[in-house]
Amino acid sequence: MELPIVCQSAVIPSRPSGGRYRARPMMPSRVAAFRSPAAQCFYGIIALAVVTFVCFRLKADLATTAFIYLAIVVLLSLIGSYVASVVLILVAVAGLAYFFNPPVFGSATDLPQDIALVIVFLLTPLTVTDLVRRARKLTKTALESEVAAKQAERELRLAINTIPALVWSTSPDGSLDFINQRWREIGLSLDDLQGSEWIKVLHPDERAGVADRWRNAMETGTPYENIERVRGADGEYRWYLSRAQPLRDELGKIVKWYGADSDIEEQKRAEDALRESEQRFRDYTESASDWYWETGPDHRFITHLVSEQQLNTIGAVPTSRIGTLRWDFARDLEEEPEKWRLHMATLDAHKPFRDFRYRAASRDSSEVYIAASGKPLFDSEGRFLGYRGVGRHITAAVRAAQLEEALQEARVVGDNIAHDLRTPLTRVRIRLERGREHASTLEELRTVADQAITGLDQSLTTITALLRITEIEHSRRHQAFGEVQLAPLVREAGDLYEPIAENRGIVLRVEAPEGSIVRGDRDLLFEAVANLVDNAVKFTPEGGRVDLAVLRHDGEFLIRVSDTGPGIPEIEREAVTQRFYRSDKSRNVKGLGLGLSMVAAIIKLHSFRLSLSAGPGCTAEIACPPAD
Question: In angstroms, rounded to a whole number, what is the distance separating the alpha carbons of residues 15 and 151?
Answer without folding.
Answer: 11
